[in-house]
Amino acid sequence: DPLMTLFLKLLEVPTGKTKPQRYDQLGWPSDCDFLLHGKKDKAKDECIKKYTRLIIFSISPESQTMACVAKALAYLKPFFHPLQEGGHTKPLDMFLKMITLNYTKRLGMESGKHRCKRPWRSSYALSDQDASDFTQLLCPLAMAAFYSKDFSMSFSAGQALKDLSSFSSDMVLPKLLDVVLNSMQNVMKPHEVQNAISIASVLIRKILSAADGMDLMAQLMHLSVAGIDTNDPMKTMVTLRFYLALLSEMPLTDVNDMPPEAAKPGILYGLQDWCAAVIDKAFDLIGNVSDLKKGNAMKGHVQGLLRRFFTVFFQQMSPSLYNFCL
Asked: Engineered SS bond to 184: which of 18, 80, 223, 238, CB 3.0-4.6 Å?
């Protein structure tokens, strides 16, 4: 409890107690001094990063860590609401991003996918129930934070949702896909559109393998065309990366190039319109965006992505679609 109270102060949420002015002078227990060692200049950020790591790697069957975390998150929940932004927003977005990242890292170490210095004891391994409980605690907070007006908080929530979907896809994916579809249509909040496209880029394989995945992907493809924005180079780059990831998993086959007896998903009937819309947006980008002109730092990034995209774009086309686009 004393450690949790100190951590809440670091996150700058109201605790009813005096907020520390110097994060490197907090009264940490002697066995937690390593949290601040050598990082006095960035003490608050380092505390949050290392404290989340301490939380995740101290979870075990005998520990009370998850009980304390549940109490802390219940207290923090109102501060993740988009209408409750303030000085605590930046610390909370780092907390949300780091706690899910460290959880996935621990799962990777236990499964042998990530290297660790010592062999992991099976008796301390996280169970499926642990993962379920963790997801139930964090997912509602990440969903609320995704709609934040603060870009950094919304981005961190997107990263957290990606991490949660990697080990609890059955619990997270249906809700996450609804968030992605709704946010892609919210043109009044461009940061939501950008984060939704970014999330979609890591869910492509799962979407395509779902029962109605092809229909859902058709919606995402057409909605994401607006992401190629002459006024927003960052959103444009995120959209092009989404298309590169998509084209690595799915060829662009015109319905006229399919055998007569083959099943023809509905997505195939909209490919010509999608390709034409993407090409129009790309030429508009090349001709009108100041960011592609000499002297702008984004010039090389956007141009490099455009080259890679068009190379893969035309390579993945079937003959009829290729001729149509030409």
From this structure: 223
Q: Check: CB of residue 87 under 8 Å from CB of residue 153.
A: no
Report the C-alpha gap between 29 and 4 in whole angstroms: 12
Contact call for residues 93 and 130 (beta carbons, < 8 A): no
| Residue whose pair of structure tokens reads 């909370």 in the numeric block | 92
Is it the case that residue 40 has pLDDT exceeding 50?
no
Nearest to 48 by CA among 2, 93, 104, 107: 93
Quick one: how far is CA 293 from the chain centroid?
30
Contact 26, 6 (CB under 8 A): yes
Q: Determine the average pLDDT of the residues in 99-125.
A: 80
Question: Looking at the predicted structure, is the pLDDT value of residue 106 above 80?
Answer: yes
More confident residue, 195 or 123: 195
CB 135 within 8 Å of CB 168: yes
Model confidence at 11: pLDDT above 90: no
The Cα–Cα gap between 293 and 73 comes to 47
d(CA 56, CA 288): 48
Cα–Cα dist 173/41, whole Å = 39
DSSP state letters, 211-277: TTHHHHHHHHHHHHGGGSBTTBHHHHHHHHHHHHHHHTT--B--GGGS-TTS---GGGGGHHHHHHH
| Residue 154, pLDDT score | 85
Distance CA(43)–CA(54), nearest Å, equals: 16
Question: Rounded CA gap, 283 and 218, in Å?
Answer: 22
* Long-range contacts of 124-130, Cβ-Cβ distance < 8 Å, separation of 24 or more: 124/60, 124/61, 126/59, 130/59, 130/66
Give the span between the Cα atoms of 193 and 109, in whole angstroms.
33
The arithmetic mean of pLDDT across residues 271-284, rounded, is 92
Q: Is the pLDDT of residue 170 over 50?
A: yes
